[in-house]
Amino acid sequence: MSPRRIRAGAVAQGRREAERHYHLNEHLEGRSFIASSSARPYTIADISAWGWLDRASRVRKGADDPLGSFPNLKRLFEAVDSRPAVARAREVSKDHPFKRTDDE
Predict the structure, then answer these.
(1) Do 86 and 80 contact (CB within 8 A), yes or no?
(2) Residue 75 CB neighbour total at 10 angstroms
(3) Helices assigned H by DSSP within the chain
(4) Hey, what domains does the chain have and what are their CATH numbers?
(5) Interval 17-58: pLDDT, tens
(6) What is the pLDDT of residue 6?
């Protein structure tokens, strides 16, 4: 199999995985966070979803507002994205030498 076909398959799989998270929009109706309760309003589930939602502009290329059709997800994304820990993580990642080449 050619590297181009492998890469295309990986991109499609990544897109499907990201879009799978968009089904959470209905689940979030009336909730602040994915597994919210009074004892634990914010959990690792929200952090995990944030990572995929952060890529919405790549998954929904060309959309003016990639999460516009998913208001509950957009609200979740903005709530997590505004946390100080996220700002610190984004800052750390600027100095990290991420891999720039594709594997076979």
Answers:
(1) yes
(2) 15
(3) 3-20, 24-27, 44-53, 56-59, 71-81, 84-94
(4) 3-94 (1.20.1050.10)
(5) 777 778 899 999 988 899 987 777 889 999 999 988 988 888
(6) 62
